[in-house]
Amino acid sequence: MPPSPATLEHPGQREPDQVLDALEVDPGQGLNREEARRRRQSYGPNQLREVEQEGVWTILLRQFQSLIMLVLALAAGLSFLFGKWIDGMAIAAAMVINAGIGFVTELKALRSMEALQEMDIPFATVRREGEQEEVEALELVPGDVVLVEAGDVLAADLRILEANNLQVDESALTGESVPVKKRREGVEEGTPLAETASMLFKGTAVTGGSGAGVVVATGMDTELGGVTSLVQEAESEEDPLSLQLDRLASRLVKAIVAVALVAGGAGIVAGKELFFMMETAVALFVAAVPEGLPIVATLALARGMHRMARRNALVRRLSAVQTLGSTNVILTDKTGTLTENRMTVAGFALPDGDVEVRREEGSEAVRFLRDGDAADPASDPGLAQALRVGILCNNASLARDGDRDEATGDPSEVALLAAGAGAGLHRGELLKEMEEIREVAFQPGTRMMATFHRRGDRVFQAVKGAPDAVLEVSTSLFQEADSDPEAASRPFESEEKKGWKDRNLEMASRGLRVLALAFRDLGPEEADAVGGEVTGAGPAAGEENGDEGGGENHGDDPYRDLTFLGLVGLRDPVREGIGDALTVARDAGVRVVMVTGDQQETALAIGRELELATKEEEGWAGTEIPDLEAGELDPSTREALLAEGVFYRVSPEEKLRLIALHQDGGSIVGMTGDGVNDAPALKKADIGIAMGERGEPVAEDAADIVLQDDRFATINVAMEHGRIIFGNIRNFVTYMISGNIGEILMVLLAAVAGAPLPLLPLQILYINAVNDIFPALALGVGPGSGEEMRKPPRDPGEPIMTRAHWWSMIAWGAFIGLPLLGGFALSLTVLDMSQEEAVTVAFLSVSLARLWHVLNMREVGSSFLANQVTRNPFVWGALALCIALLALAVFLPPLASVLNVVRPSATGWLLIVGQSLVPLVLGQAAKALRWF
């Protein structure tokens, strides 16, 4: 029988022999093929679980799943029921147009699981029956002994058996910003995933060294499989815009039913025929329903989406455009979002003072500064020697490819090469002058690395490593000298070493990764004793977590009588312009919180530099984030968590907890990310924002928005567009519904008075669904005022239309309905028009009045001639188009016949133009008085 999964719990905490015994496998022989077959039958294939993909019909059906569409369907149904086939078909056409726009835009739905499937690796090198062979990754089973080397992407979770300078890039899974050194020894209980140096995880990449491990988990049992489950289980939050539109539709339904009941009751009391009152109810229903609302909302969002795409923000879901505009908390990853995700040399601490290293903005060039003044390495012996040691004691490579440096190897070693290149020192040229004859690779016991280079009859030894280790074996301190500056030194006293240890701690407290540099100059006799071949490839030293194996000593202690050069600090620098981008977000009332898998010191250093945390704050560890479902949270703890700006060592599950905490506090939460570990949080957040340049496919497919340039400033652009879109939605909803209210008042009051209806149902539909859409759409795609990011975000609980907005819409409706109803009465009585001509005059008057009404939508306090409406070219285009459509309704006989429209007399045209301007005059007076 295959081993029970229970025997494989916490393998990283157990010794290799214990794991091998539990898995019943000999590491030298591996599994036999028959046993591998049995285990495969028991555990299943090594793949991530597939989920049912969202089909085309599901996407299409979703376009009709809103209350506003239900209201439209009800209006169409009533029209068909009462034999108003043209009315019903027109409403149905409006529904189809809206659904078609949404369907085309949202056809690419979330494909998170597909992206995770693509991460599966086709082959792995295993040991079976004592022989080395390649097998498909799907065939790996617990107990398989897998051989790994640089360049491999791991196909399962492995307990390390051998580690030779082994280092792995786990950033996609853990958020760790630099490759992690791996070792054979187990870790202590409770060690975070990012610090489990004894394990290799599925989906991560080997960046250096080689080794072997035994498979302890496959498929959905791996750490990557656990993230996959979280992606599946994380519930996507329903976007606020959809909720707001549904609430608006709910209010409209209630208002429509109330109006219909009032009209029906009043008509019956007045002695009207039942069928007539039912026809009136249908007319009122059609008048009340804003048929163009979903179309205009969808098109306005689509327009915003295209604008954002031009600014490097690709929107996967239309409603995300507006939702981001109401976001008031953004949880952001550190590595690659706030920082560049590449190590650079920040500076050197040398015996004669500190040297700052700066990269030229927008280029690969570097500058060296002492006390703010330029320092030339060619005339600075200490700096030149430090650069030379960093370049020689190195296994990375740096080559030019066009305008950029193409690098391979450990990021810290690449940074040392880049700093040297900035001073005109290149590894290839140095090695021609100083041939490398031996290397002593980094080892956990020494925590140092050394290379030996022949130069004439002498040998130059370069050393780098952990500061305390290098200080321990250094007997002299470098100092400048007029003759032979490379060998100049003086005794290194123990008291001085204490000072250097303090300098190391100070640099580390700034979030720098600190390495010490030293050298030894060997005379002819010592040089002859060195000899030998290169003993291995060692990555940058400086961390406790090292490797098994390493270089041999050839009978000589390579780490003795060293001359200490100083310290070099390396860091993942903040991205260019990120400080300004965060300031813009803060000014817009948006809290930015760093959530990273990196260690505390690094996270806090970046957080303090970017003013996300104060010097006094220590941040919160991911393990300290409580689960809301576990019980009631202490109010003081909740308040402290919501106020915190930096969270470190955060796992995928803990990110979900933090998002839920902020959402529970009433916030609209945006989440940025790029790795596999971010995918569940991107899906759970109100707005998931993935990085497109370096992001994993699963992160992009779980997100609502993908940033093509990975710049935080692009989030600000998206938020600004979102705020503009919401303001535009509020504007065109006001415009559409206030016009509908005017129509309702005309029909309702006429019905109550027992007079003929001033507007017929199909005429109302023509106004609402044809002649009204284009001005509303023009309002929906307006460019905004430019002040959006200087205002706080809208209260997430605030509806699209507040009580004040409803009162203003009623007032606007009265400005339209009452004067025009008076004009209709004037046509029938004083002017003695036929009912057919009077209805035509009312229809054309309402149509033009609603067109001029768009000019009433300017901001209070703005000029009548110069405002965001008059500066919008789409408004003028829409007015011209609608006037043309209105002319067709009169002068195109087939359309005029359908609408029951006749050509007005000269008197009728004068009345139409005159009374259509009354609502505009009243509206501008109200604006001048700042009523609304």
Care to describe what's here?
45% of the residues lie in helices and 17% in strands. The chain is an alpha+beta fold and 932 residues long. It folds into four domains: 5-50 and 114-232, Calcium-transporting ATPase, cytoplasmic transduction domain A (Distorted Sandwich); 240-308 and 720-789 and 797-928, Up-down Bundle (Calcium-transporting ATPase, transmembrane domain); 315-339 and 575-710, Rossmann fold (3-Layer(aba) Sandwich); 347-569, Calcium-transporting ATPase, cytoplasmic domain N (3-Layer(aba) Sandwich), CATH 3.40.1110.10. Strands 10, 11, 12, 13, 16, 17, 18, 19, 20, 21 and 22 form an eleven-stranded mixed beta sheet that branches. An eight-stranded mixed beta sheet has the order 8-28-27-26-9-23-25-24, with helices on both faces. Strands 1, 2, 3, 4, 5, 6 and 7 form a seven-stranded antiparallel beta sheet that branches.
Write the layout of secondary structure elements.
Layout: H1 16-23, H2 33-43, H3 56-62, H4 67-81, H5 85-105, H6 112-118, E1 123-128, E2 131-136, E3 145-149, E4 157-169, H7 171-174, E5 180-181, E6 199-200, E7 205-217, H8 223-233, H9 240-269, H10 274-288, H11 293-310, E8 313-315, H12 320-325, E9 329-332, E10 344-350, E11 353-359, E12 366-370, E13 373-374, H13 381-392, E14 397-401, E15 404-408, H14 411-422, H15 427-433, E16 435-440, E17 448-455, E18 458-465, H16 467-473, E19 474-478, E20 489-491, H17 494-509, E21 513-522, H18 524-530, E22 562-571, H19 578-587, E23 591-595, H20 600-609, E24 620-621, H21 635-643, E25 646-648, H22 652-664, E26 669-673, H23 679-684, E27 687-691, H24 697-702, E28 705-707, H25 712-753, H26 761-771, H27 773-780, H28 803-828, H29 835-852, H30 873-891, H31 893-899, H32 906-916, H33 918-928
Parallel strand pairs: 9-23, 9-26, 19-22, 23-25, 24-25, 26-27, 27-28
Antiparallel strand pairs: 1-2, 1-3, 3-7, 4-5, 4-6, 4-7, 8-28, 10-11, 10-22, 11-12, 12-13, 14-15, 16-17, 17-18, 18-21, 19-20, 21-22
